[in-house]
Specification:
Five copies of one chain form a homopentamer.
Chain A (H helix, E strand, L loop, with lengths): L30 E7 L4 E6 L14 E7 L4 H10 L4 H8 L6 E4 L4 E11 L5 E11 L3 E6 L7 H9 L9 H35 L7 H31 L7 H66 L15 H22 L4
Parallel strand pairs in A: 3-7
Antiparallel strand pairs in A: 1-2, 1-3, 4-5, 5-6, 6-7
Chain lengths: 356, 356, 356, 356, 356
């Protein structure tokens, strides 16, 4: 497989507030989508120049600026300054190794979530992509590394005014975007769970591959990875729900509570799967021991039966001049008979021990 | 056994508040029972048309509307709108993968519990069925997938005015329905506990089947499943008991505290059984090792006794021309004697080592 | 041993507040002791008719009514009604599977504790018996299944006015009864601890019986059983101590704090013993592995020495016509010498490996 | 080693407040030291009669009465009554199985700590001795079983007015005594840690004695014992520091916080050592398995090489009349050659498998 | 490797507040750097005489006094007295076995952190060096054992007025110094993580060295060491952030929250690596068992095939006079054929068992 470890970029020694992109997608094109909507109309624009978005700030409509391409730190800094965002927030937006968190500032909320998906091109590993939200009074800024199609459905709803999105504020927009992300968590954990249950069925059916311990270790790691993302996300939503805040209206709070319930369930599922993976290791260890037992029994049975018989044959293969039995006419058959008796006795003994 | 995994329905991408049934019982008939009762009289009606229940809302009696058939989302939506229930609640009612929870709204409580039973037709697996309650000022709506006979006793009590149910409010009705559910938890955990204790006795008596680790894994999984349902249920009751609320009267609170005590006990029992199952795995592993030890001892004894004897026989089976012992008249008997001495010595050695 | 599992009585479906005895001692005689005492005098009566106790309620002395025989639900119900006890409390009193708990009502406290003792007639199992207390302003009701001699000392103190019991209120009486129960916990845990330490010494001295894992499992279970009783008892006392309450006077609180300290210590001891039992299992598993190692070494040494020698003997037992060595006069002795060298070499090799 | 278990004295059934010595040192002489000091002068007296200490109560100096000999319950009771100490405190003082705790009374604090030391005469076991403190407004009473030299340095400081002890109150005196005790904890844990690290180095270097599991179990027990004393001590200091209290002045609080920091560190060290001991057991188990593997390899190699060769020799040792190979002149050498080829082939095979 | 254990200096029995250096670097030169800066100018001086720093106290600029050489206790005491620092703080500054902590005094904060680095000259062990900070209103004192180059970048920023350091107070200076330390934690944990993941890949690829358990134990210990430093550091920052305090301004608090986020992430990473190391041990144990299984299979196959064949050869090697088969012309070939049949049968049997 080789080691294709993603070497983290070293930020040590930089001035705090230095806005440095820490990801790998250096060549991503900057791509900016703007939705500026009210209940009765909406504007959609696709831009590649950050200054073109500035005009939307002064509208009384809800403005959603969706920035793809965290490598364009200059543009992000300009946008941030225009919206008066703290430099530390800008630093965090482009530092893709953030954990899910929420920071409350006077005029806006900064929320980091992680999109989780299974990378089929890389051993079905669980991969995460950071999504940053800045929620202001009537605007929402979102930042991520690459074009994400997971928000397409939300865009459609704004365009067609499906659901209540056009009638509500930026807080509700943030909610449906987060809800979309959490729905993906649910799917991912379902897929993980199915994999674990299939594997468990295999083990229960006795089909234990030699590299089962690798599979178990891999499953454990995937579950741990998902856990690292989902558990702090729960805390993020919990803080939104608990600390009442002018930016999140009372109407929207009910919806955030709904996401919270989903996340609690996902967290519980993850912990159940985690415990199941641990049990699988126990199961696997006991199956190895059982196999060893079986191997040892075969050896013991074969050796215990034939070693004594071979000894008897050895005795009558000795070349002493005076061995009276050798002369008896039926001695050979008698000895063969004795051997047969020993053989049958041994087999019965092992049968009684339930080794056969 | 095959994989008959219940593939969850994918809800990703739906508009929040979309009311979509996520269960398997698509063809369930809609069946609605209505009890409208006061201390001195009661009305019982079985309906299949949701509009027929609307008239009961305006009565000053306590109204219990028991809806069987979560697949009939339209009817549920109509009823919900009639009672002014939040769309997210309606969404949760028909989404059968909810965990036990309580959501407090201004005029009503939404409570999800899970009925637990052992499905004898499916390997004695622990199966759960979601039961939704909406408790209003003088009404209680309950929703579940199929006809449940567990509420029959409650219905009888309303009919015959047994106990105090007819004298108290909808909060007490909710209590006795929950109490019935929790009583089933108690039974289920007792059955699980008996199974575990029987199995433990078997292992202690040395009757260890080859597939014991499968049984242990299965028991563990059943205990975990029950735990996932019962523990959040405890939290639900705790929140009812703690957060005083207009909908639950002071009189009824004492009764909810009683359910809470039961649930605490069930939770403790579950954790004890969980620990016992873990101990069983240890026990089982040590029994495998002990068996292996026994097998190895048999092999070692047989090999250690007969291999040296066979060697001696081999020596006197050599064909050298000049082997003076071969000529001695009693050499054969002397060698046999030496062999007997070695044999007895070996046996005594193993006896002293307590291997025999 | 057979399965003499105590099948729990099924209470499912009963009306809440149904007073049903759930124990086994159906034929227990009803036996009521009454102590009605003040600092300067006391009355003691042994009754079998519950109505005879009613007269004591109106006295201004402290009244202790000690009821033996939970199977007499009618009498308990009458007494409960006379003292105006909530039906749920009466239900709990006769339901012997309660866990230790405290319920606070307006005019009285309901406390459940469990007496713990070792049943020598049943494999030294740890057995518990439920003791119910109802503490009112100047009365204490206690209920249990059978005559308990553990309270004899307390009765003596009332009779002889030893200590301060006659000078203080019902809260102090409850304290000394609880203190007696907790003293028994201390003893029981000491006995368990001694058993575990003896067993540990045995294992450390190498005396490991084949059924050691059973003993360990049994010890673990006993510790768990004690834990299930003692830990919630600690919470009960803690709640008495914390939530100041009119029924427990300030003077008595100091004493309850003392019980609490004892219980904390018992809890810690239990957790230490629990950890020691877990270590014993590790210890036992390592001893099994060590034994197996020893067995394997014996086998390996015997086989490694004699199999090559037998091979050499086999070579010179071949019947080829032209085998020049066979004719040499000293060939036999040379071969024997070579065999001796191999033998000694092997022994030295195993000595160096520390296998001998 | 024999069982020299210290049988606890049974206090069950005694009247609460009974002052009964529960230790072993029944014949300890009563020995009382009194220090009565102010900034500018001090009195030191060694007494054996408790009444002689009464006169110091009325002085306006700080009085420290250090009582050696808990078996003299009468003297302790007299002193207690003179200082108006609650009987439960007196009971606890002479009951040496207390855990570290603090009880706050109106006019005094009762503190129990445990001195920890390693008993070199008893297998280097960790032994504890109870030290009781009663801190009043301007007095400190201390009680312990035997003469402790650990307080000598403190006495010297009072005598020589070294440090600030003479300038501060009884709260500071209690602090330096506790500080001395905690310093001994630090030492003890360092010694335990060194032992564990030495043992770990041994195991890492491959020097694993057969009784390593005993050593590990012993180390684990010592760590657990220290833990049982040190952890509740931390809580004691924490409560002193947190709950502001008239008896502990603001100046002294800074010093108690310092002890608290030390104790937190000791607790952490203990938990690290505990985890290291657990790892040692894993390490040891894996080393046993590795050894077994090595034993098995030797056996397998010897048997796999020589058993086939012996079979070939056996074939040509058969006595059939017509076995043409036997007549060929070079057959013997050819067979020997074939055997050599098999031998070398086997060795190469095991080399490739890395078993040799 | 030998035991080069760092013997802790024993401080037992010293007067509290005794300022005693507990480290090893006794011969370190005293080296003092002073930065006295405002937005528009700064002074930098390198001194070796502590009194030379006193003049900076009265300036209205921000003063940073960086003291290298904890062995110079006199100088530190003088500086401490000049700034009116509590003796216990001075004691802690030179006692290098402090854990990370924060102590709040009226006019200053005392903070202990630990620098973590990997000592490549000592088996890549994780080594820590204590760094003490005393933060006053407009000064910051820092103390450590030896010259640390990790602060060079900070010094440069003061000199060149890069970033906002010159515009803000001493609280911000403390922040950037701490941030530098925490950045080193991040690097260290990344290096540890890479080592663990490389090792895991090796094990997954089957390259398991014999001393893998040593490596695992070592990794575990390193992770534990890092954990002991990083976790209390998180609490330190948390307390700075939570307890609002005059010394840390509102502006700086946002920055401390940023460090806190970093530390939370480092803590999570450490716990993930800790769990991964535990899994590695399981993995390793299962790989040992698998290897043993393989060894046993080879032995069992060889022995099971050739022992019966050798027995047959033995039978026809017996010297009975009357053994009719010996005379048959083709008997030899028939027996060889039977042997071949047995051989093939055995091979097929083991193939079916998947042992071959």
């Amino acid at each position: 497989m080789g080691k294709k470890k993603h070497k983290r970029k070293n930020k040590t020694g930089l001035i705090p507030g230095s806005i440095v992109y820490t990801g790998q997608k250096e060549s991503q094109q900057l791509f900016i989508e703007v939705f500026d909507y009210k209940a009765d109309n909406y504007i959609e624009e696709n831009l590649s120049n950050i200054e073109d978005t500035f005009k939307f700030k002064s509208t009384d409509a809800i403005t959603w600026i969706n920035v793809n391409g965290l490598n364009h730190v200059d543009a992000i800094e300009k946008l941030g300054n225009h919206y008066d965002i703290h430099p530390l927030v800008l630093e965090d937006i482009v530092n893709i190794s953030q954990r899910p968190k929420i920071d409350e500032y006077e005029n806006y909320l900064y929320v980091v979530l992680k999109m989780l998906y299974i990378d089929t091109s890389n051993n079905d590993a669980v991969v995460s992509e950071q999504i940053n939200f800045v929620l202001g009074d009537n605007y929402l800024l979102s930042f991520h590394e690459s074009d994400l199609d997971i928000f397409d459905m939300v865009k459609d709803r704004i365009r067609t005014s499906k659901g209540r999105v056009r009638d509500m504020g930026a807080d509700y927009l943030l909610y449906i975007l987060m809800d979309t992300i959490v729905d993906h968590y649910v799917n991912l954990v379902d897929v993980l769970g199915d994999t674990i249950e299939d594997f468990e069925s295999d083990i229960l059916a006795g089909n234990i591959a030699n590299d089962a311990s690798k599979t178990i270790l891999n499953l454990k790691r995937e579950v741990l990875r998902a856990r690292r993302i989902v558990f702090p996300s729960r805390e993020v939503i919990n803080r939104i729900e608990k600390n009442e805040n002018n930016l999140i209206g009372k109407n929207a709070l009910t919806f955030y509570r709904d996401i919270y319930d989903h996340l609690v369930q996902v967290c519980e599922d993850i912990d159940v799967y985690r415990e199941m993976v641990s049990s699988l290791m126990d199961m696997y260890m006991s199956s190895i021991s059982n196999k060893m037992n079986e191997v040892m029994k075969v050896l013991t049975i074969m050796a215990s039966i034939f070693i004594p018989l071979t000894f008897i044959a050895g005795v009558y293969g000795m070349n002493f001049e005076y061995m009276p039995e050798l002369k008896y006419h039926n001695a050979y058959y008698i000895v063969l008979g004795i051997m047969a008796v020993i053989l049958i006795g041994m087999i019965l003994y092992f049968k009684r021990k339930k080794w056969l």
